[in-house]
Design a protein that fits this description.
This protein has 534 residues and is mostly beta strands. The chain folds into four domains: 152 residues, Collagenase (Catalytic Domain); 79 residues, Immunoglobulins (Immunoglobulin-like, Sandwich), CATH 2.60.40.10; 176 residues, Jelly Rolls (Sandwich); 90 residues, Macroglobulin (MG2) domain (Immunoglobulin-like), CATH 2.60.40. The protein is 6% helix and 36% strand. It has four helices and 33 strands. β32 and β33 form a beta hairpin. The protein is elongated, with a radius of gyration of 31 Å.
Length: 534
């Protein structure tokens, strides 16, 4: 290759191919002038013409210029990202977090590999979403340009600008800003306010024009407006920024989910996905990460009825993919002993599978989520190990899971939402059915004087279960046993009872499972949970 004098020019050689297969390469300051510069393939320059157009390709030259200006990779001084030992290496820049680096050209903005959040969007990593240098990297590049190693400090001197014909007095106008923004919260209750933060880049805007469908106000000229949402729904937000160099706009679709502050579903409630309607559905059922394979209604398998929620993971979802679905709000007003169970079917693909299912709960419409259930790997599996795509073939491949709600935190809350979040790691298809939200009302039958005592025992039971209670006065009494799908499986009493002690037994003919004993006395309700194991 023929280069111009490196003390006067920054050489960039654009080539058709590189023998090693690399996209490009460059050397740190101090290398021989004959090879001082950047060598890069034409399909990794920019985003038009011969470029393949990806973010990684469009930013490859930026990456190599970083090396030319003395920047190592963010994981350290090798070309081998993804290795655990990279955590102990360093790039000599204090504000880039230690990382093992991105080895598969992905873009996981939640990646933590060395104890802190990785800066995967850094130009000096191998991710597919390059967007930034840090202030520390900027200072290190300025240091390279002001150092005599490889004559970098001569490139920008007035004498060299005159000698190379680039000191023509031209002063460019300002660049147009690139619109960008964010907000710290996605899920809110009606009546809540949000602050939207301008994060525009490339150049400083001088004016802002926001559009907030469903918000109040619905438009704003402020840089960081505060908006109130009073109506349930899923809303987009658009920002247009301008300066003397031009303008740009960005729209974030479905960035805000507004739910009614009072849950629509009264507790107890069983969601068997038979009459749910479409999912996602407005601000009720939400699907997170809906691209590629995502959670959705399926008729492939079910515990009761024909439908369940399924996530296809056997193929199509790379390791590390996180998918979630969010339920509507459930009304726990006047409810104590809050609880939740669901039916799970999942097969691990191998003994090394480390897929994970988490269930979160939120009592403020999703502004804050608390983990209430976690299972990983083989402990998650209900059907052992299966290399083929998994579809449960019967009840034995389903398992009843219990979510610990720490009921004090959710008792008497007007709206509680749940999020089922699955992280893929060489696993298989997963199914969820019969989400059973439970609780006992603290009004009605518990507060009337005629119910002095009620006991259901033993619980859990091997089959035969006793019911004992006393009435302080006569009452019309119905006692029913229902399964987790809400079906009445046994009617124990349906008559007017006199004051005094009453004793019943049930359960001998019932299969193992979770049941609910419902007492209705003169229109007042009490429900107690019973587990039968035979």
């Amino acid at each position: 290759m023929i280069g111009w004098p490196n003390e006067n020019y920054f050489n960039i050689w654009v080539v058709a191919n590189i023998a090693s297969g690399a996209a490009g390469y460059a050397y740190f300051p101090g290398i021989s002038g004959a090879i001082d510069g950047v060598v890069i393939r034409s399909d990794y320059v920019g985003s038009i013409g011969t470029s393949n157009g990806s973010n990684y390709s469009a930013r490859s030259l930026t990456h190599e210029v970083g090396h030319y200006l003395n920047l190592p990779h963010t994981w350290g001084g090798t070309n081998n990202p993804g290795l655990p030992q990279n955590c102990s290496d360093d790039d000599f820049v204090s504000d880039t977090p230690n990382t093992i680096g991105v080895a598969n050209f992905s873009c996981d903005l939640t990646q933590v590999t060395c104890g802190t959040l990785d800066n995967v969007q850094n130009y000096m990593d191998y991710a597919s979403c390059h967007y930034m240098f840090t202030d520390g990297q900027k200072a290190r590049m300025h240091g390279a340009l002001n150092n005599n190693a490889s004559d970098r400090n001569n490139l920008h001197t007035p004498a060299n600008l005159i000698a190379t014909g680039t000191n023509d007095g031209f002063v460019g106008g300002p660049c147009a800003p690139q619109a960008d923004f964010g907000t710290a919260i996605k899920y809110i209750c009606t009546g809540s306010t949000l602050t939207f933060t301008d994060m525009s880049w490339k150049a400083a805007p001088t004016s802002w024009a926001w559009d907030f469908p469903g918000g109040s106000p619905s438009t704003s000229p402020d840089q960081n407006p505060v908006i109130t949402y009073n109506t349930p729904g899923v809303y987009d937000v658009t920002l247009t920024v301008s300066n003397a160099g031009g303008s740009s706009s960005v729209t974030r679709s479905q960035i805000i989910v507004v739910s009614d502050a009072v849950g629509a579903q009264a507790v107890p409630f069983v969601e068997n996905f038979e009459n749910t309607g479409p999912i996602p559905s407005g601000s009720n059922w939400m699907i997170e990460n809906a691209t590629g394979n995502a959670w959705g209604l399926s008729t492939a398998a079910a515990v009761s009825g024909s439908n369940s929620m399924r996530l296809v993971n056997h193929s199509g979802n790379p390791n590390g993919t996180v998918d979630a679905f969010v339920t509507p709000g459930y009304n726990f007003t006047n409810i104590v002993n809050a609880g939740m169970t669901f039916q799970l079917a999942f097969a691990a693909r191998s003994s090394a599978s480390s897929d994970q299912l988490k269930v979160y709960a939120s009592s403020n419409c999703g502004q804050n989520w608390n983990i209430r259930y976690t299972k990983t790997g083989l402990t998650l599996s209900t059907a052992g190990i299966l290399s083929a795509a998994f579809t449960p073939n019967g009840p034995s491949q389903w398992r009843l899971e219990t979510v610990n709600l720490n009921s004090v935190s959710y008792n008497n809350k007007p709206s509680v939402r749940f999020k089922f979040e699955y992280t893929q790691n060489t696993g298989n298809n997963i199914y969820i059915d019969d989400i059973n939200v439970t609780g006992v009302s603290n009004v009605g039958i518990q507060d009337v004087e005629f119910l002095a005592t009620v006991a259901v025992f033993p619980n859990p039971s091997a089959g035969l279960t006793n019911i004992n209670f006393s009435l302080a006065e006569s009452a019309e009494m119905t006692i029913e046993v229902t399964d987790i799908a809400g079906r009445v499986v046994q009617t124990i009493e349906n008559n007017k009872l006199q004051a005094g002690q009453h004793n019943y037994t049930f359960g001998e003919s019932l299969n193992s499972g979770l049941y609910f004993v419902r007492f209705v006395a003169d229109g007042n309700d009490l429900t107690q949970k019973v587990v039968i194991t035979k």
